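One record is set out below.
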Amino acid sequence: MKKIIFLIPVYNDWESLIKLLNEINSIINDIKKFEFDCIIVNDASNITQPNISKPSNIKSLKLLNMKKNK
């Protein structure tokens, strides 16, 4: 099975990320020949990130938190 990985950068716009993940989930619902993973990169957001649940059609969801340069 082939794998597709979504790489999504986020900076302070968690609401849009949740909408995007839901949209991706609905679009890939009928695609059976691929496995989907998602990596979210938090580009040092300065607001509190919400709890993000893994969409049903995405096999794994990883969140990478980048640190601010000081």
About this structure: Helices lie at 14-27.
